[in-house]
Amino acid sequence: MIDEDDVSSRVPWSSAALGHSDLVRMYQQGPSILIGLLGAHNTGKTTFLAANYLQLLLGEKYETGEFCGSQTLGAWESIASWARINNENQLPSFPPHTPRGVERTPGLLHFGLKDINDVVKNIFLTDAPGEWYTRWAVTEDAVDAVGAKWTALHSDAFIIFADCEKLEGDERSTARRELRMIIERLGESVGLRPTLLVWAKSDKDPSDGIKRAIQRALESNIPHAREVEVTVAKPNSFIKALELILTEAWTPNFCLPITEPIMGNTPFLAYRGHHEKF
Q1: Residues whose CB falls within 8 Å of the CB of residue 23, separated by 6 or more in sequence, listed in order
Q2: 12-270 is classed CATH 3.40.50.300
Q3: DSSP 215-258
Q4: Domain residue extents for the chain
Q5: DSSP labels for 145-175?
Q6: Which tens digits make up the pLDDT trace of 43-82?
Q7: What are the Cα distances from residue 33, in Å, to 18, 125, 133?
Q8: pTM value?
């Protein structure tokens, strides 16, 4: 009989946030997508992560698939725990600021989605301090912005966060400048990768002038980007926002649709059916 005390083994995961090597390993296991969350300090990135995780625990689903597990449950729980009432009657609060470290790549949170064909897709989301992106927006090759540059280079899709509370308050000038610079920097390398601008804390109401200025910057630098509003007053808005970027990223429009030219000099070849207009 084997003594259980003498048996030890290691599992290939710790449930903590993943790193670059984990990403490489899991990308080889099946369909995967990395979504970069970009935004200055305290713009709602970590709250966005926590809100999506809590909604999944409540049974919410994405159109692209149903939650079927995660290799970073410990990391998810460490974020979501702040939104719960614990045994010490601690009141729910927003997750704390992601600490600014010396890592060269962001922490990665993971969950799997199983589609209607039972195909499991890996979803990875970055969890990085906003200071990285503010610094990267100023100097792309800054030593303390390596993680932000890595995110911009390797992500399959992006979510940019606009903090409506800051844009409405006394810090609105700084918030607008930081956001515009991040949009401009990302615009240099984004290409056609799906991008979503999230108006976080949308229960606040920045002036029309500020919103239009940000929308103009988005239109000039990332014209294909879409916009969506999220607020904790409508928890499902977080699911809808992530669902939007997932749908665009999984079904990319690789090329323009093929259309046959109408040849006006030959009536027979110009005919396209009775439902077409000439």
Answers
A1: 34, 108, 124
A2: yes
A3: HHHHHHH-TT-EEEE-BTTBTHHHHHHHHHHHHHHHS---SPPP
A4: 12-270
A5: GHHHHHHHHH-SEEEEEEEHHHHHSTTHHHH
A6: 999 999 999 999 998 888 898 889 998 999 988 988 887 6
A7: 14, 9, 21
A8: 0.81
